[in-house]
């Protein structure tokens, strides 16, 4: 690309230019000629440091302005990540839904020096990575994120969470679950009706109570649930009708969505499960 051509052009031009020291060495003895390149090592080192500083600055600005391809190109030249440039690149890739680049960036997290771990990792990095985990269905990305979370947590054992055993204030026989003939309230989820009972939902959580109280007066009006998938809503209702999680069969791909739904419907025991 253009960026790589500019870099290679610069290197070629530098190779064609003779330093004053090399020009003077042209008229010297053969022994002195051999010493000339060695004397120029300091200049080469200074040039290398200046180039690295320039590339780091270019990497920072490209990450800040969302030019993730240029950032990746600079990284491929051996320029190390800073936590900030890595996070900005990850954010851009997530926004643009560029899954292969997300995988590459997550794999590169281990290359970030530990002294780069600042408060930004906690305030911006972890929320971003949990958002990616919640929305991504890619198994590789999930595994990569779990490795990063483990690394961030450290070697300490995870404290045991005791499940809240709350009595269901009311429950109905599973036979009534999504039963059209016996229902008195209908939810509309992904364009499909789901039949339920007010007597159960009024006491299930403040969220369900609010949904029922704010329902339009017309009896045939459905309560639309727009941000929960049908199969996830079915699991939530199954939990309520059966009075617990024993009968739930939750797939790995459904865990994060069910957690989000449990949080929305204010079902604390289901969240902790």
Plain-language structure description:
This protein is mostly helical and 273 residues long. It folds into 2 domains: 40-153; 174-272, 2-Layer Sandwich (Potassium Channel Kv1.1, Chain A), CATH 3.30.710. Helix content is 58%, strand content 5%. The chain has a 3-stranded mixed β-sheet with strand order 2-1-3. Helix 6 (83-95) runs antiparallel to helix 7 (99-107) and helix 7 runs parallel beside helix 9. The model is unreliable at 32-37 (pLDDT under 50).
Shape: elongated
Strand order of the largest sheet: 2-1-3
- Unreliable sequence segments: 32-37
Q: How confident overall, as mean pLDDT?
A: 79
Domain BTB: 183-243
Organism: Nothobranchius kuhntae
Protein name: BTB (POZ) domain containing 11
Pfam families: BTB
């Amino acid at each position: 690309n253009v960026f790589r051509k500019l870099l290679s052009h610069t290197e070629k031009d530098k190779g064609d230019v003779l330093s004053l020291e090399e020009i003077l060495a042209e008229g010297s003895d053969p022994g002195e000629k051999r010493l000339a390149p060695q004397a120029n090592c300091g200049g080469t080192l200074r040039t290398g440091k200046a180039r690295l500083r320039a590339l780091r600055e270019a990497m920072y600005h490209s990450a800040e302005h969302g030019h993730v391809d240029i950032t990746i190109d600079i990284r491929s030249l051996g320029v190390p990540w800073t936590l900030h440039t890595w996070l900005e690149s990850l954010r851009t890739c997530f926004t643009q839904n560029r899954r292969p680049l997300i995988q590459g960036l997550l794999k590169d997290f281990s290359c970030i020096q530990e002294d780069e771990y600042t408060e930004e990792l906690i305030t911006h990095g972890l929320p971003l990575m949990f958002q990616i985990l919640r929305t991504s269905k890619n198994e590789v990305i999930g595994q990569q994120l779990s490795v990063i979370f483990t690394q961030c947590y450290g070697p300490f054992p995870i404290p045991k969470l005791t499940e809240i055993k709350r009595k269901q204030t009311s429950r109905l026989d599973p036979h009534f679950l999504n039963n059209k003939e016996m229902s008195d309230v209908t939810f509309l989820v992904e364009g499909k009706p789901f039949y339920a009972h007010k007597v159960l939902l009024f006491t299930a959580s403040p969220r369900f109570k609010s949904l029922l109280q704010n329902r339009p007066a017309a009896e045939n009006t459905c309560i639309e649930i727009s941000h929960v998938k049908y199969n996830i809503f079915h699991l939530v209702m199954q939990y309520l009708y059966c009075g617990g999680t024993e009968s739930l069969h939750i797939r790995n791909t459904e865990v994060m969505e069910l957690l989000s739904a449990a949080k929305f419907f204010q079902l604390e025991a289901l969240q902790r499960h």
